Amino acid sequence: MVPLPADIDRVIEDSWQKTGQIPGHLGENEARLLGILAACSPANGVIVEIGSLKGKSTVMLASVAAHYALGPVVAIDPHTSPAVTDPAIRNGSTFDDFLNSIRTSGVDSHLEIHRAFSQDVAKQWNRPIRLLWIDGDHTYRGAKQDFDGFSPYLSPGAIIAFHDSLNAYEGPITVFVKDVLRNEKFGAAGFVQSIAWSQFRPALDPSVKKQRANLERRASRLVPFVAGGKAVQGLRKMAYKLVRSRVPRTLLTPAELAAQLS
Question: Would you list the domain boundaries of the chain?
């Protein structure tokens, strides 16, 4: 169990008050989880965000990082359009909206902004990572590239999290199942709404194997539904939702999360 900051409940609430004002696809429970992960990760290194859009997750992460002096959050996004996750954004950019969000929230001085594609940033990357938040290209190729490009820099005890893992996109759930849940270097894992998360543990505690294996068995049943980037529609969508309902995904309190981390 990792030490829990005494003021974490207040910090997460204050950070959510800023985050909730920002447009985006991040739910409240998801945003709160991100803040808890940022505060509770016991690893050394920086927080890396792949996919910023209009800055909703950025504000949460940077607010928590600023309070606990965790260093600047590295925010990576080319801010181009359209994208698989945002087909309505056409012939424009989200960069001005992103800048407005971080400035009005007062977190702009706590960010290192890369207006670039994540695979290009990965080629030059050489720093340890304490929290890796992947919310960029949701195709299998895109999510796999992000995992392969940045996961080698996870510090022992670091946390990796994927957005939209339970929202019928091929990339996040497939990479999480195949490269995280089936990887002996990762330990405690779980879902909160559509976020999938796990802790990087090069020396795995055998006590978490059963929990992770159970999660892998349930989550892996979703992969065939989205294989090849197929749209989940009609009767397949009903079946997908039934399988998804069997994946546990409730919000963790800070104490509950800290109890799972090592």
Answer: 8-260
Pair type for strands 186-192 and 195-200:
antiparallel
List CB contacts of 46: < 8 A, sequence separation 6 or more: 70, 71, 72, 73, 74, 112, 127, 128, 129, 130
DSSP 87: T
CATH code for the part of the protein at 8-260: 3.40.50.150
Question: 43-81: per-residue pLDDT in tens?
Answer: 999 999 999 999 999 999 999 999 999 999 999 999 986
CB burial class (10 A; 0-12, 13-18, 19+) of residue 9?
Answer: middle
Indicate whether this model's pTM tops 0.85: yes
> What does DSSP assign to residue 164?
T
Q: Rounded to an integer, what distance in angstroms lies between the CA atom of residue 99 and that of residue 89?
A: 17
